[in-house]
Amino acid sequence: MQSLKDHDTLIPRPRGTLPKVCAAALAAVTIGGTVVLSPERLFGWVAMVILILTLGPLLHGLCLLAEEMFYHSNTRYRGRGLLSHVLPACGLGGKTLLAAGLAGILLYLAGHPLQHKGQCWKLLFLASALYALFKSLGVLGPSEVEVSDVCEGRKMNVAHGLAWSFYLGYLRLVLPRLEGSIAAFRATHQASRSSWGRGSRKLLILVPLNANISHKLEEEDDNIFFYDNLPNSEIDRAGVRGRVYKHSVYSVLDKHGKAHECVVEYATPLLTLYSMSQESSAGFGEPERRQQVLLFYRTLQDILEHSLECRNRYKLILLNDEHEDDPHVLSKAILRHLQQQEKEEFCLTPPPHQEMAHPLASASGAPAANGDWHHPEQMSREPTLMFSLEKPQPLREPVENTYQ
């Protein structure tokens, strides 16, 4: 496994609007050609095509409605209204009905584009009926790209659920307590006080692309040693009093043999993805697993970036599995991220040194020897950024002071 330097080349971005732009351009070219060839029948042709494209889904929606009404109205919809839930679920929404109605009106006003009216209606109903048939048989079913786009857009992937569960059920609970746990750990471990940099005071979360997780990091890399566990965090959770959450501290050796302590662990939901890929009944192969791991990383990163409770308390490390022959890839990846965090740390300006060109000779106010004591030069002071380490206090309630 190897840590990626540029995640943009690997993490899939959300799909954009290029298909819509291409479809609009194709429609514009087609309509332009129709205008050149037969401009007098343009509106009739457009209206008939829109009717075919809308009546076909409407007929297919009626076929779906029959199944839903006879067998699933109680179990899936719990007796909810036909118009508000069942019809939209079958594709019989208001937009499709409105488009079909407007197209019918336009066809009536523009006239039939074919020479014989009977040919127009035969073509219209035949095309719509065949569309419903092919759609039901799966010939016109959605492509994998369309299914993926819908699942990603509506957050329906396995990775989305695992990322939200990992955040809500674990990270949001333990990350706000991490700083206190590390402080308590350092107080009881004198030897490791000086080796905790800024980056090591965060929880390093490892996300391997192959989702194959070892339960002991020292088995992956002999430059990593288990040091100790942080103090346990006990939280009342889901009826369990004092449920224990814990983190492990590891010592990572660099090329000079210097140890760097840090809190590091794998993202445990990846165990579920790996187990699913090993079960044939899950229908979840290695390519799907890899794609879900990337979506898990992207989703979890987006969630944590918008979380006030977890901000500046974590670091996600995406690990590639292309160079498994290197026995120290894991330690190198961890050290690289620790060094990066240290370089990003800002050094505050030291306290200002105030001087006077002609200081007073004594505290009693005696003038300087040259007598020019009433026009001292201004004190030099560099601008500084000041922070308050005190916790914010609640606003005081108004107190009534009435003097009688």
Automatic annotation (TrEMBL):
GO cellular component: autophagosome membrane; endoplasmic reticulum membrane; endoplasmic reticulum-Golgi intermediate compartment membrane; Golgi membrane; perinuclear region of cytoplasm
Stored Pfam families: STING_LBD, STING_TM
PANTHER family from the UniProt entry: STIMULATOR OF INTERFERON GENES PROTEIN
Keyword Ion transport (UniProt): no
Biased composition (Basic and acidic residues): 393-404
Species of provenance: Perca flavescens
Domain STING ligand-binding positions: 157-342
Subcellular location: Cytoplasm, Perinuclear region; Cytoplasmic vesicle, Autophagosome membrane; Endoplasmic reticulum membrane; Endoplasmic reticulum-Golgi intermediate compartment membrane
Listed transmembrane segments: 21-37, 43-65, 86-110
Catalyzed chemical reaction(s): H(+)(in) = H(+)(out)
Protein's name according to its UniProt entry: Stimulator of interferon genes protein
Annotated family: Belongs to the STING family.
Highest taxon, organism lineage: Eukaryota
CDD domains in alphabetical order: STING_C_metazoan-like (cd22658)
InterPro entries in the cross-refs: STING, STING_C_chordates, STING_C_sf, STING_LBD, STING_TM
Main subcellular localisation: cytoplasm
UniProt topology in membrane: Multi-pass membrane protein
GO biological process: activation of innate immune response; autophagosome assembly; defense response to virus; innate immune response; positive regulation of macroautophagy; positive regulation of type I interferon production; reticulophagy
Keywords: Endoplasmic reticulum, Membrane, Nucleotide-binding, Transmembrane, Transmembrane helix
Nucleotide-binding among keywords: yes
Gene Ontology MF terms in the entry: 2',3'-cyclic GMP-AMP binding; cyclic-di-GMP binding
Residues covered by the STING transmembrane domain: 44-155
Stretches for region Disordered: 350-404
